[in-house]
Amino acid sequence: MKPATAKTALRVQDHLGPGYRVLEFEESTRSAADAAAAIGCPVAAIAKSLVFRQADGAPVLVIASGTNRVDEARVAAVLGQPIGRADADFVREHTGYAIGGVAPVGHPAPIRTLLDRDLLALPEIWAAAGTPNAVFRMTPAQLEALTGGEVADVAKLP
Ligand code: 5CA
Fold it and tell me: What does the alpha-carbon distance between residue 66 and residue 127 come to, in Å, rounded to a whole number?
């Protein structure tokens, strides 16, 4: 583990400023399970960034706890319109990042963002920072401030 060196991760570090530290791992942090294993944190503390496409074509970023599955019907209810999963090109076009590295900041244009209510109860969380082996740590309050996201009930019920 070392400070960020990849160009995209350094760009995320610039967006975040000196109050945050983007870390790069030798191991993959591409999935929530990978990231939790590399960091040594609970999978629930990984903030998964999932991009959906609204019926009107606009992107929506849902940031969910690593142990939750996103319930598309609940997301659609919040948005007031149906959604579908984004493909890799749509994700890159609207976030500037590849799947597995989608950071909650630094998108080419602002994206409506929903924050999984379950993340708010945790002392600290980790999110991707631009590449599939870069992450950074924040509190849930910091995630809210960084994204301007709306706290919502988006998780599939068990
Ligand atoms: N770096 C880790 C955690 S810090 C990370 O980015 N995890 S993630 O969960 O936010 O991003 C991977 C997510 O991308 C997966 O949860 C999955 O929902 C989504 N995904 C994976 N493959 C595809 C695909 N082919 N098309 C659309 N979404 C995908």
Answer: 10
